[in-house]
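Sequence, please.
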C-alpha cells in the first residue's frame, strides 16, 4: 500500500508518524503524574481527616470517662446518703464542694461542657450552669439512655449512671450524670483544621444535616450534603463528586462516639492546575508545530511537489503523442531551468515529428501522382484487343463506344493539375470505367445512383475507381455467372456516404476483418496501395471519422462504404 504513494506523501506521513510516539509518551507520562498526585491528594485528605477525628474522639472520650468516674468521688457518694438531707448546712457546703470540682474539670478540659448530676434517691440536681433553675423530673428518666452521644438543641449530650447497669432503667440508678457541650466547640475545631489546609471540613448526619466551620461555603456544602444523603456511606471511605461544574475529592470517617460523619472535600483541579497548565502548554506547542509543519509542507508542495507533478504530466502527454505540451515556469528556481529544457526538448521533438509527417504526406502525394499517371498495361491491352476484335466483326458501335470511354477514362486519370475533384467528375470517370468493363465483360451490369445534392462535393481524385476496380477484379471476374455492381450515395445532416456493392464471390468475416485492419497499418510491399491510399487520404482530408468500412453485401458479395463529413459549410 505504501508503495502506491509518491515520495512527498511518504515524507509527510513519516513526519506525522514521528509525532505520534512523542504525543503518546507525553500523554502516558502526564496520566501517570496525575494518578500519583491524585493518590497523594487522597492520602493527604484521608490522613488529615483521620487526625481531626482523633482529636475530637480524644476530647469526647475524656468527657465520657469523666461522666463514668465522677460517681466514684467520695463527696458525691456522701451527698447521695438519704440521712444527709437532715443536715442542710453540711449539704449546702458539700454541694458547693462538688460544683467546684466540676468547674475545675471544665477548666482543665479542652472544651467547656455543662455537667449536671441527678440524685434519684434524694431527688436533688446539681449543675455547672448557674443561670438555669433545674428540678428533678422523673418523666425525663423513664426511657433507657442511649449508649452514644445524642444531638438536640445544637448541643451533644451523654448520660452515665451509677451503677452502669442502670442505663436501661435510669430510675434505679443512685446517680445520673449528664454531660453536654455545644456545637460551637466542633465548629471552632473545624476552623483550626481548615487554617493550614485547602479543604473545607464539616460534620454530617443524615437526620440532622451538617455542622459547618465558620467560613464554610454554604451553597457547596448544601449540594454535598444532598448528595451524601443519597449515598450509601460505610465506616470510612472516599469518592468524587461534581459540584458547580467542578470535581472534588470527598473523604469521610464515621465518629464512633457521636455517630456523625467527619467530611472533608478538596478541589482536584485546583491542585492539578500546574500539571494541567503544563499539559495544555505542551498540546498548544504541538498544535503550533503542526500548523508550522503544515505551512512548511504546503510550501514544499507548491515549490517541489507541484512542479514535479507538472513535469510528470508533461512527460505522460509527451509519451501519449501530444508534442504540443509546454510547461509554464513563472518562478525563478531550479525547476524553471528544468521546465525550460523540457519545453526545448518538446519543441524539437514536435518539429522532428512534423517534418516526418510532412515527408509522409509528400510520399503519399507522390504515390497518388503515380497512381494517376500509371497506365495498367493489362487493362489497356484487353481494351485494344477488344477494339481489334470488334473491328474484324465490323461492329463499329462497339469500337466507337470502347474508344470514347477509354479516351475519357485515360484523360481523367492522367490529369494531375489538381488533387481534388467534384463528385460529379468522379462519377463521370467511374461511369466511363464501368462502361469499358461492361463492354469487356458482357455478363456485368452496373447501377450508379448518386443524389444531385452530392455531386458538387469535393473529394480526392481517384477515390471511387480503386474501390470499383477491386469489386470487378476480385468479386465479379472469378465467378462464371452474371454479376452486378451498385453504386449509391446518401447525404444526411452533413454526413456523406457512398456505398459500392457487388454480387461477386464475396469474402468470409475473418477475411473482411483482416482487410479492415490492413487499412489502419502502414503500407508495405505485400499490400495493394489503391484502397489503402483512398482510406488514408480521406482521413487526412476529413478527419478520423472518415474512411472505408468493409462489410458483407446482401447480394452475396462485399459492400464497401466510403464515409466523410461535409465541412464546406463550417
Amino acid at each position: 500500500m505504501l508503495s502506491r504513494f509518491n515520495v512527498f506523501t511518504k515524507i509527510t506521513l513519516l513526519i506525522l508518524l514521528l509525532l505520534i510516539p512523542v504525543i503518546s509518551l507525553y500523554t502516558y507520562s502526564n496520566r501517570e503524574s496525575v494518578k500519583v498526585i491524585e493518590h497523594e491528594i487522597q492520602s493527604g485528605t484521608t490522613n488529615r481527616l483521620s487526625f481531626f477525628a482523633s482529636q475530637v474522639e480524644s476530647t469526647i472520650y475524656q468527657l465520657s470517662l469523666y461522666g463514668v468516674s465522677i460517681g466514684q468521688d467520695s463527696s458525691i457518694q456522701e451527698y447521695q446518703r438519704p440521712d444527709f438531707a437532715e443536715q442542710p448546712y453540711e449539704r449546702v457546703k458539700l454541694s458547693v464542694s462538688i460544683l467546684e470540682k466540676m468547674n475545675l474539670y471544665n477548666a482543665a478540659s479542652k472544651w467547656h461542657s455543662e455537667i449536671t448530676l441527678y440524685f434519684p434517691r434524694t431527688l436533688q440536681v446539681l449543675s455547672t450552669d448557674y443561670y438555669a433553675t433545674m428540678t428533678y423530673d422523673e418523666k425525663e428518666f423513664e426511657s433507657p439512655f442511649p449508649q452514644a452521644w445524642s444531638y438536640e438543641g445544637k448541643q451533644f449530650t451523654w448520660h452515665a449512671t451509677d451503677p452502669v447497669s442502670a442505663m436501661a432503667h435510669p430510675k434505679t440508678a443512685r446517680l445520673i450524670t449528664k454531660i453536654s457541650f455545644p456545637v460551637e466547640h466542633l465548629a471552632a475545631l473545624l476552623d483550626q483544621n481548615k487554617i493550614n489546609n485547602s479543604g473545607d471540613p464539616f460534620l454530617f448526619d443524615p437526620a440532622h444535616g451538617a455542622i459547618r466551620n465558620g467560613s464554610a461555603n454554604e451553597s457547596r456544602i448544601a449540594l454535598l450534603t444532598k448528595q451524601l444523603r443519597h449515598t450509601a456511606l460505610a465506616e470510612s471511605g472516599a469518592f468524587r463528586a461534581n459540584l458547580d461544574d467542578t470535581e472534588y475529592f470527598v473523604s469521610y470517617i464515621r465518629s464512633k462516639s457521636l455517630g456523625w460523619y467527619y467530611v472533608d472535600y478538596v478541589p482536584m483541579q485546583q491542585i492539578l492546575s500546574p500539571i494541567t497548565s503544563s499539559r495544555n502548554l505542551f498540546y498548544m506547542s504541538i498544535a503550533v508545530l503542526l500548523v508550522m509543519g503544515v505551512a512548511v509542507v504546503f510550501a514544499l508542495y507548491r515549490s517541489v511537489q507541484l512542479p514535479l507533478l507538472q513535469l510528470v504530466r508533461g512527460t505522460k502527454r509527451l509519451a501519449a503523442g501530444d508534442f504540443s505540451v509546454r510547461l509554464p515556469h513563472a518562478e525563478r528556481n531550479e525547476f524553471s531551468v528544468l521546465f525550460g529544457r523540457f519545453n526545448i526538448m518538446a519543441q524539437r521533438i514536435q518539429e522532428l515529428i512534423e517534418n516526418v509527417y510532412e515527408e509522409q504526406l509528400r510520399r503519399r502525394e507522390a504515390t497518388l501522382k503515380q497512381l494517376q499517371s500509371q497506365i495498367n498495361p493489362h487493362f489497356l491491352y484487353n481494351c485494344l484487343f477488344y477494339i481489334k476484335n470488334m473491328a474484324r466483326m465490323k461492329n463499329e458501335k462497339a469500337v466507337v463506344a470502347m474508344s470514347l470511354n477509354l479516351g475519357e477514362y485515360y484523360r481523367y486519370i492522367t490529369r494531375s493539375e489538381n488533387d481534388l475533384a467534384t463528385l460529379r467528375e468522379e462519377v463521370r470517370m467511374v461511369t466511363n470505367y464501368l462502361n469499358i468493363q461492361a463492354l469487356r465483360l458482357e455478363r456485368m451490369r452496373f447501377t450508379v445512383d448518386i443524389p444531385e445534392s452530392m455531386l458538387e462535393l469535393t473529394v480526392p481524385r481517384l477515390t471511387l475507381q480503386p474501390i470499383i476496380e477491386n469489386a470487378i477484379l476480385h468479386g465479379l471476374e472469378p465467378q462464371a455467372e452474371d454479376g452486378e455492381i451498385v453504386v449509391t450515395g446518401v447525404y444526411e445532416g452533413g454526413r456523406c456516404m457512398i456505398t459500392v456493392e457487388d454480387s461477386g464471390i464475396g469474402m468470409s468475416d475473418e477475411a473482411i476483418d483482416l482487410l479492415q485492419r490492413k487499412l489502419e497499418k502502414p503500407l508495405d510491399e505485400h499490400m495493394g496501395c489503391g484502397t489503402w491510399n483512398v482510406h488514408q487520404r480521406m482521413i487526412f482530408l476529413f478527419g478520423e471519422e472518415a474512411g472505408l468500412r468493409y462489410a458483407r453485401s446482401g447480394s452475396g458479395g462485399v459492400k464497401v462504404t466510403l464515409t466523410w463529413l461535409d465541412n464546406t459549410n463550417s
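Residues 73-182 form one domain.
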